[in-house]
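User: Study the chain.
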Amino acid sequence: MNKDLSATALLSRPHRRYNALTGEWLLVSAERTSRPWRGSAEAPPLADVPAYDPSCYLCPGNTRANGEQNPRYESTFVFTNDFAALQPDSPVASFEDGLLRASSEQGTCKVICFSPRHDLTLSLMSAAQARTVVDLWSAQSETLGKSFPWVQVFENRGSAMGASNPHPHGQIWAGSAIPREGEKEEATQRSYFEATGRSLLLDYAEQEVGGPRDLGSDDDWLVVVPFWAAWPFETLVIPRRPVSRLPELGDRQRDLLSGRLVELLRGYDGLFDAPFPYSMGWHQAPFDGVERPHWQLHAHFYPPLLHATVRKFMVGYELLSESQRDITAEVAADRLRSAIDSVSSKLDQSAG
């Protein structure tokens, strides 16, 4: 192996990158998107979404699938998922038979409507409106964290990511076990902290600020296409001061976060001039009463699209070997940054 190859030369050819947050490697095949594509195409998103849809089971005053009626809410709205994947009263049990092991899981699943308006996605909100969603994430995390160690806040946007309803909403699943991704991030962050006395993600944020993958940073937040991104336009949102869980965010941090989120999501929509599908979620330290100075709060955004109607499939090599991406994180960041700047410029012109 030629260890003297420059970083620029190395990163312009097929190579592997290390994900410091999960302890895993992924394959990067630079500019593989130039290959011919004759696979399935994503359908364009629905246009002209109404502010109210009488057939939507999440709109204010409407009846849900289980027969319950929503209140005529005027801001955010939370309810227990009518088809919850976790139940708080599941019996506690386990069994082990050689290599066969199973244990019961208790928990709950909440649906959180971001707005009474059927057409008001996070990307279309003002920063002040987005702040109500940030506050809701924090309040629900604090409440659910009193009963369950793991609180997973997330949003699936668009049918391409499995969203069953276009009304702007997210979910929170809370469970009694620390899941796979949480265990991996716990192990890497703890190991780094024990070796250095510092936070892995705070050190990573300082290394990325102002660099080629930085999509927007201030004294409190960094939005970045991570060096180890697997999905085409994956991003990571990291507070730049020590904070382990959403409820710990102060007013200033929440205000700035709201602005950063709206900016990022408008950039996503501007990338292909269409509502951009994604799965996003917050990883916060477990609510188990254990002090975790090594754990830094952060949010992952996983959008699947390579082009406006072409999605990235994690199949074949990705399922059987390791994750693989088709464009470098630096190229993705440059394109996203241009989309964010373009949207911001248009908004400034319309305001003027």
About this structure: The two ends are 57 Å apart (CA to CA). The CA atoms of residues 47 and 241 lie 40 Å apart. Helices lie at 7-11, 127-144, 180-196, 200-208, 251-271, 317-320, 329-351. Residues 329-351 form the longest helix (23 residues).
